[in-house]
Design goal:
CATH superfamily of chain A: P-loop containing nucleotide triphosphate hydrolases
Helix content of chain B: over 70%
Number of helices of chain A: 11
Radius of gyration of chain A: 19 Å
Distance between the termini of chain A: 55 Å
Order of helices and strands of chain B: HHHHHHEEHHHHHH
CATH topology of chain A: Rossmann fold
Number of strands of chain B: 2
Helix content of chain A: 40-55%
Structural class of chain A: alpha/beta
Largest sheet of chain A: 6 strands, mixed
Radius of gyration of chain B: 23 Å
Largest sheet of chain B: 2 strands, antiparallel
Oligomer: heterodimer
Structural class of chain B: mainly alpha
CATH architecture of chain A: 3-Layer(aba) Sandwich
């Protein structure tokens, strides 16, 4: 299905104070792919995500969601396909109760009132947060907030999920649960993060951004095996891969 | 006086009382809102020396508290926190208005003292009832009622957001303050010369957050209208509630009920 495609062509963007943020980025993500976007602080990850959701528009180049290039005119349709999960759930959960928040998107999409309850409950059930329905968002724990934020986006039935630092601020168990949850989704996923282990778990493909340009785009395992490349981009091997290597070294030294 | 931290908890606690299920809680929020507004208008409309005539109106908050199963102490404590404002408004009345209006047990009572008492009584009634309204209805439901009663949407949305982000803002402010206190040495509070940059910092963070929230709303199809799924339905009980209290407020305003009662008792004796 072509409408699950995200294609970025020669994307250039500079902030009003003329700091160049993105400098000619191109990639194409097809249906059902799960792609990690990594890079140092200030490499342009957030700016890129803002372009994918139409919060910013490129100076030159284009962003294509589905069959059409994203413009101010088809913003509404494009946003219905994209589910953006923000880094800070407090930014995303702005309604007084969890129920109202999850209902916010579908109501804007014009889902009839009698179907709202089923839509909301199904979304909450998917993320295992149905019991939080009547709670105010500020009372939830970090992990619960994240689940509800994801439910709020799922309720809009998007084709493409975009996640900004999904594991930030989560304790290890909540992080693990989140990873397991995301694994069950069949959406096209674009995940911007510093958590390379999470990328290793979820994404078969990785894109490295470096000072607003594309430094690498390829299979996750290959990219993470390239220590030189990672180092040049202020990154390190995921902890899990380091462990494997160290174990090998340790057993090697024991042998000698 | 409560510190910011505990004030934070107590605002939330008040709203949590609203999740109870009593006869009062089940009433339509519009009914409670209209009645409460009428109550406040009635209380405020009394003559400045009114004290005894105000007393019957205590019935309304008492009924709300009792039937709504609201802990009295919690409400009274919150009213006391803001009471200094009312005290300041009336504190000089006894000095300016020294005309003796009545004697209680041989002690002369001046107009100033009476009007001061009247101000305090009104303050307790109006602020107490406003807090009770939140406790038996919930902030969101009050906002919803406001919207259904044709209060401009922009205003209602502002209120909702104010309540939602009050906690986030206070926490942000607390974090800045703590970070400041940890490195400020043994100064108590915030030094005058640092106030500017601290509050500026808070403002900038708030603006950033507002922008992010707006983007999050746009991403979910926000078009200037906030739609809420729940619907309100008023039944006969709600109409009865409003009518009963309207009648009672009217009678209490029109006739000095305690005096009537006193005359009636004398007549019997």
């Amino acid at each position: 299905m072509s409408h699950h495609i995200v294609e970025v062509k020669d994307l250039v963007y500079a902030y009003p104070d003329t700091t160049p943020a993105l400098n000619g980025i191109s990639f194409r993500i097809t249906h059902g792919e799960s792609v990690g976007i990594v890079g140092a602080n200030g490499a342009g990850k957030s700016t890129l995500l803002m372009h994918l959701t139409g919060c910013l528009f490129p100076r030159s180049g284009s962003v294509q969601i589905g069959d059409h290039a994203l413009t101010r005119h088809n913003l509404k349709q494009a946003r219905a396909r994209i589910g953006m999960i923000f880094q800070d759930p407090d930014d995303q959960l702005f309604m007084p109760t969890v129920y109202d928040d999850v209902a916010f998107g579908p109501l804007n999409q014009g889902v009839p009132a009698e179907e709202i309850e089923t839509t909301v409950e199904r979304a909450l059930e998917t993320v295992g947060a149905l019991h939080l329905k009547t709670r105010p968002p500020y009372k939830l724990s970090g992990g619960e907030k994240r689940r509800v934020a994801i439910a709020a986006v799922l309720a809009m039935a998007p084709d493409i999920l975009i996640l900004d630092e999904p594991s930030s601020g989560l304790d290890p168990r909540s992080r693990r649960q989140l990873i397991e949850l995301l694994k069950t989704f069949e959406h096209t996923k674009i995940i911007a993060t510093h958590d390379l282990d999470l990328v290793l778990d979820l994404c078969e493909r990785t894109i490295i951004l470096h000072q607003g340009t594309l430094a690498a785009d390829g299979k996750t395992e290959e990219i993470f095996a390239d220590e030189r490349l990672l180092l040049d981009n202020n990154l390190e091997k995921p902890l899990r891969m380091q462990g494997v290597q160290d174990d090998a070294k340790a057993s090697g030294s024991r042998l000698s | 006086m409560a510190s910011i931290d505990t004030a934070l908890v107590s605002i939330g606690a008040l709203n949590e009382l609203a999740s109870q299920d009593t006869h009062i809680h089940r009433l339509d929020p519009r009914a409670k809102l209209i009645t409460t507004v009428l109550f406040i208008v009635t209380v405020v409309s009394f003559d400045k020396y009114a004290v005894s005539a105000l007393l019957p109106l205590v019935l309304y908050p008492v009924v709300l508290t009792a039937l709504g199963d609201i802990p009295t102490g919690a409400i009274i404590r919150k009213v006391l926190i803001v009471s200094p404002f009312a005290v300041l408004i009336g504190i000089f009345n006894p000095f300016f208005d020294r005309e003796v209006l009545m004697h209680i047990g041989g002690v002369p009572v001046t107009g100033g003292v009476i009007s001061f008492a009247s101000i305090l009584l009104r303050f307790f009634l109006t602020v107490g009832v406003a807090l009770l309204l939140i406790a038996v209805t919930g902030f969101e439901a009050v906002c919803q009622a406001l919207e259904r009663l044709k209060v401009p949407r922009a205003f209602v949305v502002q209120l909702l957001f104010l309540y939602r982000y009050l906690f986030v803002l206070l926490e942000e402010g607390l974090r800045i303050r703590r970070a400041y206190a940890l490195r400020a040495g043994d100064t108590r509070g915030v030094a005058m010369r640092h106030y500017g940059s601290l509050s500026g910092q808070l403002l900038l963070r708030t603006l950033d957050r507002a922008q992010r929230i707006h983007q999050a709303m746009l991403c979910r199809g926000f078009d200037g209208r906030i739609r809420v799924a729940r619907s309100l339905r008023a039944g006969p009980a709600d109409v009865l509630f409003v009518l009963f209290w309207c009648l009672f407020f009217f009678l209490a305003r029109r006739y000095n009920l305690p005096l009537l009662l006193g005359a009636f008792m004398e007549g019997i004796v």
